[in-house]
């Protein structure tokens, strides 16, 4: 009979109690026991960063830790990004950034990049290019190249800052001609909030690689 241990993990805000083998890696518990396959496995040896998740707010490589070592902790995976308050009704600004700045091709590294980017922006909302490169230095991308990934994170930093300024102004947005618009004035005929800026506040979006940035069907 296989020896198992009961552990409790709070993942993306939901508490799970699961049985795991003592030697089961955290990444395998996330993918196989919780069915959250947005967290990828690239090497299983701590080299690629594809398995990066946030553990109690810190980015960790989940292939370098046994699931039992994470007992009692709070985890965040890519699947949780769309539920964050700053995601509005759709994607988190970081996910939007990867879509807008073409920060992915095959998307394999993307969940890990998003988690490292999230940890960076939580700690440093206005990072320099050098600081972004340092933050993602443990995440390898075999196809996109890092320039677009850096731009994606810069995009998110700008979007998050703009959102904070708008919130501080009571949601008032300054239009291109300098006039201001209130949220009530940005409601369309169907009552949907739309600020009129492309890819902002529910504006037009493409579905390019949605699964990679949202952790949907990714395997
Ligand atoms: S799978 Fe964990 S670092 Fe590569
Ligand atoms: S590994 Fe393919 S997009 Fe990074």
UniProtKB/TrEMBL annotation:
PROSITE patterns: 2FE2S_FER_1, 2FE2S_FER_2. Keywords: 2Fe-2S, Iron, Iron-sulfur, Metal-binding, Oxidoreductase. Residues 5-81 form the 2Fe-2S ferredoxin-type domain. GO terms for molecular function: 2 iron, 2 sulfur cluster binding; metal ion binding; oxidoreductase activity. CDD domains: fer2 (cd00207). The keyword Transit peptide does not apply. InterPro entries: 2Fe-2S-bd, 2Fe-2S-bd_dom_sf, 2Fe-2S_ferredoxin-like_sf, 2Fe-2S_ferredoxin-type, 2Fe2S_fd_BS, Beta-grasp_dom_sf, Diverse_Oxidoreductases. Pfam families: Fer2 (PF00111), Fer2_2 (PF01799). This is (2Fe-2S)-binding protein. It comes from Natrinema longum. The lineage of its organism: Archaea, Methanobacteriati, Methanobacteriota, Stenosarchaea group, Halobacteria.
């Amino acid at each position: 009979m296989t020896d198992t241990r009961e552990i409790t993990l709070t993942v993306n805000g939901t508490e799970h109690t699961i049985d795991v083998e003592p030697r089961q890696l955290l990444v395998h518990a996330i993918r196989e026991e919780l069915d959250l396959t947005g967290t990828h496995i690239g090497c299983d040896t701590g080299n690629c960063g594809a398995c990066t998740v946030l553990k109690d707010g810190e980015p960790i490589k989940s292939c370098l830790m046994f699931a039992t070592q994470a007992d009692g902790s709070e985890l965040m995976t890519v699947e949780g990004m769309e539920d964050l308050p700053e995601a509005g009704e759709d994607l988190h600004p970081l996910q939007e950034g990867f879509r807008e700045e073409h920060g992915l091709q095959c998307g394999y590294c993307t969940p890990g990049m998003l988690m490292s980017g999230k940890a960076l922006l939580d700690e440093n909302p206005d990072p320099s290019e050098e600081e972004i490169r340092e933050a993602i230095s443990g995440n390898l991308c075999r196809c996109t190249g890092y320039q677009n990934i850096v731009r994606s994170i810069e995009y998110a930093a700008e979007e998050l800052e703009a959102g904070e300024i708008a919130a501080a102004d009571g949601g008032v947005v300054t239009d291109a001609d300098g006039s201001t618009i209130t949220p009530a004035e940005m409601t369309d005929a169907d009552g949907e909030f739309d600020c009129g800026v492309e890819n902002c506040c529910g504006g037009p979006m493409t579905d390019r690689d949605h699964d990679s940035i949202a952790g949907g069907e990714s395997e």
